[in-house]
Amino acid sequence: MTIDIRTVTAGDRAGWCDLYEGYRTFYEIPSDPTAVRTAWDWVSAGEHGFIGLVAVDAGRIVGLANLRRFARPSTAGMGLYLDDLFTAPDARGSGVATALLERAGDIAAQEGANVVRWITAEDNATARRVYDKVASATPWVTYDMQPAAP
């Protein structure tokens, strides 16, 4: 397998959307074609500070990473947040995720960001084995708060 990591292009839509639907299925997020299309539109257009990366092998998209720029007031710097990382099931174990993470680190360095940050499910042991090789787990706990009703 020869993996090429690059930013998304308009021609990646079908392959990216298929993989993103696989990501949503993996995390047991109900199918929602509108959400997938909206995410594609944001990532492909660079809206909301997004950077979309794909891993390509022989013309086929086998992985994706969606990064987003964010300000870090505590360090007076910028960071990249990895919203989504997914590898096609038949390409797992071939270095796709590591290559995407390394490219994210390269982009962070080029942009002067001081961190690439992400979260994953605590029980996602397969991914965490990869993550533990390239990053350090933090002691922070994540919370989600629903906005007040209008």
UniProtKB/TrEMBL annotation:
Where does the N-acetyltransferase domain lie? 3-150
Please tell me whether the keyword RNA-binding is annotated for this protein.
Answer: no
Which Gene3D superfamilies does this chain map to? 3.40.630.30
**Does the keyword GTP-binding belong to this entry?**
no
* One Gene Ontology MF term: acyltransferase activity, transferring groups other than amino-acyl groups
- Which InterPro entries does the protein's record reference? Acyl_CoA_acyltransferase (IPR016181), Bact_Acetyltransf (IPR050832), GNAT_dom (IPR000182)
Its keywords, alphabetically, are: Acyltransferase, Transferase
Task: List the protein's name.
Answer: GNAT family N-acetyltransferase
Which CDD domains does the UniProt record give? NAT_SF (cd04301)
Q: Which organism is it from?
A: Microbacterium lushaniae
